[in-house]
Amino acid sequence: MPITTKNAAVAETHGRLLRVLGLGFGLAVIIGNTIGAGIFRAPGSIAEQLPHPAIFLGVWVVGGLYALLGAISMAELGTMLPKSGGQYVFSRYALGEYAGFVVGWSDWISTCGSAAAVSLLIGQFAGGLYPTLQGQAVVIAAAVALVFALLQWRGIIWGSTAQNVTSSLKALAFLGLIAAVFVLGGQSSAAAPPAQTTPAGFALMAAIVLSLQSVIYTYDGWAGVIYFSEEVSNPGRDIPRSLFGGVLLVIAIYLLVNVALLYVLPISEIAGKDFAAGVAAGVVFGRYGDTIFRALTIVSMLSAINAYHLMATRVLFAVSRDGLFTRKAANINKGGTPTFALFASAAVAVLFIVFGKTFEQVITILAFFFVANYTLSFISVFVLRRREPDKDRPYRAWGHPWTTGLALVGSVLFLVGAIAADMQNSLYALALLAVSYPLFRLTKSVTATSE
Questions:
Q1: What pTM does this model have?
Q2: Which structural domain, as residue segments, surrounds residue 308?
Q3: How far apart are alpha carbons 36 and 111 in whole angstroms?
Q4: Residue-level pLDDT at 291
Q5: Strand, helix or coil for residue 232
Q6: pLDDT tens digits for 268-278?
Q7: How far, in Å, CA of 347 to CA of 353, rounded?
């Protein structure tokens, strides 16, 4: 059913969400939201666990295939239920208000925390570029987060333009670095037998599972466009195109980055490095390598912060519109921005920045929910196919139920692996899930009383 002004508007709303976004924004928000610090950090840990070039690259391919399978299912949900708010919308509609409550709040808080983490990384790297800024990471991070929030306050046109520009700069910067590595860098001994012994048998399977966890975390963000389904001019066409095009572009960039690393560094030199790309930049650019790497990192992080603000705002807006938070957060200005939701999201991000050590544990615990939310979305496809087989679906998931089933199985296996790898924080996450139901009932009661 198409979104109308009546069901998009709420009490005291001065504006409405604007249908002004297209394919370009969809690609930009996926690239901006997905490609972040993970591609700089993950190769070192993966190479340490899988010190063989072919297997090392193979897990990146498998992670990309998981994202692509997920995109196939998410495209059906995004076009069937074209409402802004991300996976919260699907879970609430298919599985009920409580499932939506868990997905919405965990997604919102973790997205605000991601904005804080990326802002802090910019602050730290800026201190490395300019000695006068050393020790000012918190101030820089808070300023960057607030600048993007103020930019989006003007409206979705400003926010989407910022996303398009910053994501384009990111893509060009990565492509420039990749090209420079192949043109200027000398070929490494990556093809030679690795210095470390590649695990075998059960140890190899365990290493692959752990590596895939890092890869899937790095691919997280591929569903960015579904947070704006209500604002996409032609959701039936542009949401699937954005999802498939965005995922394929991210896969290509990730593979090229890792091939470039192997081109200039033996895998033993990648293994264990926090920022293997920085080491590669040093090999290619010499004494300018660190400066170029830090500048590339800062440029690539800007689009992520803008995307996180946009997405967190839409999640809180959707939760509030449905009565699971104060209705004020569903107010929209004339530019199409949910202003209270943006203010609250930016404020939480700044709190994460200022009290980073205190909130770091919270984000670690909430990481449990990131694939759990995908799991509920894939379950939603099955539920809605059975419950509402005749509902209009502008895009139907190709290969369903097999593609959806594979994505679901992959998500469940990831959750099992995550619990086994970090039992303590997983138990905290399960405890948080246990107390979420009384919090849900309390929220429902408070919001019903205030209306």
A1: 0.90
A2: 19-445
A3: 13
A4: 87
A5: strand
A6: 889 888 888 88
A7: 10
